[in-house]
Amino acid sequence: MAAAMELRCWGGDWGLPSVHTECLIVLAYAKFSGAKVTVSPIDWTWKTLTATVPELLCGDAVIQEPTHILNFLRKQRFNADYELTARQGADTMAYIALLEEKLRPALLHTFWVDAENYAHLTRPWFASRSPFPLNFLVPSCHANTALSRILLTKGEAPLHRITEVEGKIYSDAKECLNLLSYRLGTANYFFGNSPTSLDAFVFGFVAPLHKAGLPSSPLQSHFRQLDNLMRFCDNILAVYFSSDHPCPPPPVQETMDANLQKLTQLVNKESNLIEKMDDNLRSSPQHKPHRPDPKPSLASEKNSSPA
């Protein structure tokens, strides 16, 4: 009997099974190949900061990164590419490399570097799915990683700053989307009547761009002019994910482990101590009563008499 497989990933929203590109790739391929995986969202847990997702657990094996996970599934006889010719296999590798080189930098910039998108969509979403105090750390860590990755791959001379590479990365991304649209044509999938690993990768890259409510995105505007790519995403969601529903947030008491409880208690104690010290300082005789420049805390207002 085959060992049970568990997939750790970011949870879903915006009508998607996951908002995370790499997780979407693996989720889609698992559906295409018929692999039975138990999905375990890392939302509201400490793994939002410490885990590398997607992460597949099978027996004693722990596999990370989409390419490695897909190779592992193929070895378990879950192969969505078994009907591909050698030429189609080579095309698959070429298009995946194109996605990584041309489209990923623009997606990272759109979701994590663009100030308006980050402030109004990306940061609030990831903060809301991370427990205190990680909700302050997780979004900024992802944003810093995204910026570093863009500059590492696209910041070659003479382009050294993010403002200097924006035009280049968005031009490359639009060209990549146009090539994908041309290759797909009027078909449902890129090779024949069944989805393959290339369809999983393309879906993972473009589905968030299709579904996210981005307040500012010229790349999304360009994507929405490519009707066949939008239809491609909607078809996969309807055929393979229509019965899936995002997991509701678990009760805080269940997601908060012992370490988080201790840290929360410590923060509360420190906050109470600071409030007591502040009250003592305000009531001491050497201080004249006055309204402080910064606003007092709610607890201080309740304990003090009206001016």
From TrEMBL:
It is found in: Mitochondrion outer membrane. One of its GO terms (biological process) is protein transport. Residues 274-307 are annotated as: Disordered. Residues 23-140 form the Mitochondrial outer membrane transport complex Sam37/metaxin N-terminal domain. GO terms for cellular component: SAM complex. Keywords: Membrane, Mitochondrion, Mitochondrion outer membrane, Protein transport, Transport. CDD domains: GST_C_Metaxin1_3, GST_N_Metaxin1_like. Signal peptide: none annotated. Its main location: mitochondrion. Pfam families: GST_C_6, Tom37. Residues 173-236 form the Metaxin glutathione S-transferase domain. Belongs to the metaxin family. This is Metaxin. It comes from Channa striata (Snakehead murrel).
